[in-house]
Amino acid sequence: MIFKTLKPQVKTIISNTQKTVDQRLLSICELLETHIDYYNWVGFYFRNGNKEELLLGPYVGEPTDHTVIPFGKGICGQVAISNENFVVPDVTTQDNYIACSITVKAEIVVPIFVNGKNIGQIDIDSNMPDPFTEADERFLEFVCTQVATLV
Length: 151
Ligand code: SME
Description:
The protein has a single domain (2-148), classed as Beta-Lactamase (2-Layer Sandwich), CATH 3.30.450.40. It is 34% helix and 26% strand. The protein is built from four helices and six strands; from the N terminus they run H-H-E-E-E-H-E-E-E-H. Helix 1 (2-14) packs antiparallel against helix 2. This is GAF domain-containing protein.
């Protein structure tokens, strides 16, 4: 199982104090995008201070115009409010969705908590329809818990 192999690699990246936080976050994006074939865009969004908006952090994949997302807008903005994972098997079924690329078929967003506060999220787009399972959710929750120790 790929997730079992990736978990220690995520830990190794997180604990590498030779790199800046953003470099480590980018390395995590690269690790996931490289090893999981249905992860085609992998990035982090973080809350902008006390403002009700998210700012794009490190990511890999096609550049996006959506570097600032207000709370409530799109899948990401909804997760900023709900504090819950959001799995979208088919993005065409979503009214409140921000399209970044026409190749994207599915999306998963998992929040990052620090001291119980939702401070950001990992966002993954897939070009494959309905690819995400509960195993992805558990793995990405692990990644977010690791990231929470950095920020
Ligand atoms: N699709 C997201 C926007 C971010 S991009 O996927 C990079 C959304 O609906 O919030």
